[in-house]
User: Fold these one by one.
Assistant:
Number 1:
Amino acid sequence: MFAAACSFGLLLCPQDAPAAPAPTVDAARQAMWDEAKAKMKPYEVVVPGTEVRFTMLPIAGGVYRMGSPDDEAGRRGDEGPQRWVAVDPFWLGKCEVTWDEYEQWASSLEVKRRSADYEASKADSEADAVSRPTPPYVDMTFGMGKEGYPAIGMTQHAAIKYCEWLSSKLGNFHRLPSEAEWEWACRAGTTTPYGFGDGEDIDEYAWHRGNSDGHYHQVGKKKPNPWGLHDMHGNVSEWCLDQMAPYAAAEGLLVSPLVRGEDEYPQVVRGGSWKERASRLRSAARRGSSSEWKMRDPQIPQSIWYFTDAQFNGFRVLRPYLEPTAADRQKYGSHVVDQGR
């Protein structure tokens, strides 16, 4: 009787009840978001002293529900409870960082290309002061390709140091995204499991276990999400700044949440990869790093730069709309002590 009454609209059924409206931010923050939306444009980056180019896309500030609903197919318990989150505007790499970009720092290619009469600028000197990885003892592409392919196998520490180097070279602050920023950009205004829908067209948007032929692929070869970002789902998973931790139930609105921790493991990666089944590529899916990602590293102590068994993980860079203060920058840095290994 109850079900029949619901179907005929005689009663307001729970599933038909209007969704609670999204909470709002204060007037000052909304004004900043509106200003950013009017000013921010896509732009191309040319790294000084190199021929490397990549594109940064504007991501507007906004409010969304982070995590997945209880009934989402493939959901795991660490994706909830859902909570309302406010994210400030930023630019994000259109694609994952490629070997072409990464090795300018990691292998000092940019320094090696300088001529004998090259006069280093202040930015060059600051960038040169950023610590760099020791040479790897294996081919970190593992034979899967280099030019135009995503850089893989670096630790979160290494990815953060690359961002520090890039910040010095370009003169504005770059970092890894927080987990909340990453999911906001991945969802691109959607509430479906994927940024492109429910997953029926996943082969058009993502490299995953079912279509990757057992390796990663050049970036940007699949369709982008609604905000123009490529490979947010699949190809390689991506580092975030956060320590992997359970979501705490939250009342009201969380503004720019970030969970940093002192533990080496686990740190958050998002997006899924070419090695994983499609359900692990969902917008809300989470994964934590593990010491098993260094199983093939024979060094004692093991390297702070390489995850030799994470051939599926990379990163992309974020530039915040508002430049952080020197004090605020500290919370985005690495907690690893560089001892040269």
Note: The chain has nine helices and eleven strands.
Number 2:
Amino acid sequence: MNKIKSILIIGITITLSLGILGVSYAFFKTAISGNENASGIVTKMGSLKLSFNDSQYIGIPYATTPWGATKTFTVQNTGTEVVKYNILWETLTNTFVNKELLTYTVTSTNSGGTLPQTQIPNTGTNLPVVKHININPGVTQTYTINFNYIDASFNQASDMEKVFNGKFKIEEDKSVPTFNEIIIANNTVKNVENDSMFAHVAPADKSENGLWKEARAGKTEGDKPTYFFRGSVQNNYVSFAGKMWRIVRINEDGTVKLILGGNGTEDGYIDSATHVWNPSRDQATYVNYVGSTAKTDIDAWYNNNITGANNNKVATWNVCNDKSAPANSHGWTYEYGAAHRLYDAKTPQFKCPNASDNIAVKGGLLTADEVAYAGGVYGSNSPDYYLYDNAKRSGNVGCWWVSSPYYFDGFANVFVVYGLDNPGFLAYVNVNNPVGLRAAISLASDTLTVSGNGTQASPYTI
């Protein structure tokens, strides 16, 4: 191996300068003091505590290729509010010639910042490492930074006598929090551990109310986390485009899905009329959302009501018209995927089983699985979840379509949610039955709010 005489001193000196920002974000102001060469250094900064497992400096006066080093530290939030911060190179000197060989990675626990293997930047100051990191109250995030100088297949003598050193700092994130960040910051997030709670409706005692995180493998698109509201929550109101909405979930891509809501018990429908899914029911293809009357009517409502600048704030998203067929489907009878998950197994999921069943839309419908996550159960009245709050009409007009086919047994059937007659009851009807429609949209991931805290009296205003 080539022996390279280099100065590889990685100084990690954290200096914090934190102020105050935004809704439900707290920031504090301090600076590190003490002996930089001491081991186990601990720094307290308002509600944050920064701790190094060893000294703040590592030094390798002579290095051979390959070379590696690791630095570990923790950030702990001892306060009662969410804190948001960035980690940067405060100063960095990098005179290596073969810069692509000098890399680092950042990993962390508890939703801290991460960075895949990345070339260490050129000499500079205030260079970003990881940004926009949230840390919840009582949480400790452990960071591990791995440095590597790679042994290449060519002569690396040009890097002899070159210098690499630097120090990090942590600072306030001055960016305005996005809508999805504010939603998370304003709620205590609970994690879904298993499917047991989906076997029953959202309970009247409100024990399951709140914002939940689904991050289990196979449950979400790309196995990325999604955050959803469940139960009779009263802090998911949004005022947008002159209408009131309810937040359903933060999608895997950071967009925010809303369903038409309102201030009254009948305000969640697009109109006072009924709408068939399809005027015919005797073919399996009539469960398709594409080509359905329901899609035509939702598209028309969207184009008439979400226009101009408001349309620009709405992301294109996918309606899942899940036509996957489980093993117990046979012959001319098809029980589609959502029927198996929600009637037989009580195991909802956000992931659309077949990518081909995703339909790109601006305005669309919820899935039956999303209704189950919110607190509905097939075949049971569910009066204690927010999806029922604004959908309390009686008769056919009280029911409303969702996008999930149920089965075909000579007649095509699609899931619906009942209104006042059977509160919040998840069921199915033939596609030629006339029922109500509730529109859903997804706001772009970079959406900002003007005001509000999500209550009915003070909704988030977009």
Note: The radius of gyration is 27 Å.
Number 3:
Amino acid sequence: MTEGAVADIARLLDDARVSYALIGGHAVNVWLEPRFTADIDVTVQADPAAFARLREVLAAARFRVDAEHGADLASGPDFVRFGSPDRGIRLEIQEISS
């Protein structure tokens, strides 16, 4: 996975107008010696409407939901894993309600 993939995801998150922070391996790679990671981990702060908007933006980019946890919560899901159409990008989003 390239740095370009992280930039592409950042643009999609910006398009969805959600507050987010890069976490996980890619965040570690910014500060320490780079290491391999197979996914992009992000925490977003979003109410249900904003998270729905994020889903729409990702769906328009042809990402699909591979796994979801907490969808039955009133605040919405607290974790969703998305996969890119070519399976080259796995995006894991932890959601914090705003």
Note: Residues 38 and 47 are 28 Å apart (CA to CA).
